[in-house]
Amino acid sequence: HLPPAEAVRRLDRALSGTRGAAVAVAQVDTRAAVLRFTGVGNIGARLCEGGAWRHLVSRPGIVGTHRPTTLREEEAPWADDRVLVLHSDGLPSRWSPTSDTCRTAADPAVTAAVTIRDASSPARPVRDDTAVAVLAPIPPDGP
């Protein structure tokens, strides 16, 4: 397994000569109970820890064309009460997750759909290029 920063470096080489991309790589080491994250470009990342949300920071740039020379890899404890939401810049910048979004019992696909629904408003509709990915532990009674 590659650490997230190294995965982004390799993606930068692979995307060289293209228009590039915004990229986020999140990796959970369940044995060490650690989440590692590296992001470049307009990728939002929010981690729910014990009911409170915090931002994981993506660096400005474009993977493949203007990647930052230094890639920061954030680490955070990972436990059964954590939820990670990654999203493209298609969500309004003022979007704020609700406490319901932090429920680990919900299916991640449902959490993603609710995130898109709740981020939209008549004044600031979600754009058609919006992407949301959710990482959450499988509940004990899950599949």
* Total count of domains: 1
Structural class: alpha+beta
Biggest pleated-sheet summary: 4 strands, antiparallel
Strand order of the largest sheet: 4-3-6-7
Pick out the low-confidence regions.
Answer: none
CATH architecture designation = 4-Layer Sandwich
Q: What would you say this structure looks like, in words?
A:
The protein has a single domain (4-135), classed as PPM-type phosphatase domain (Phosphatase 2c, domain 1), CATH 3.60.40.10. Helices cover 16% and strands 28% of the residues. The chain is built from 2 helices and 7 strands, in the order H-E-E-E-E-E-E-H-E. A hairpin with a 2-residue loop joins strand 3 and strand 4 (52-56). The mean pLDDT is 87.
Present the secondary structure layout.
Blueprint: H1 4-14, E1 23-29, E2 34-40, E3 43-49, E4 52-56, E5 74-77, E6 83-88, H2 108-119, E7 132-135
Antiparallel strand pairs: 1-2, 2-5, 3-4, 3-6, 6-7
Quick structural overview:
The protein has 143 residues and is of the alpha+beta class. The protein is built from two helices and seven strands.
Keywords:
single chain, globular, 143 residues, Phosphatase 2c, domain 1, four-stranded antiparallel beta sheet, three-stranded antiparallel beta sheet, alpha+beta
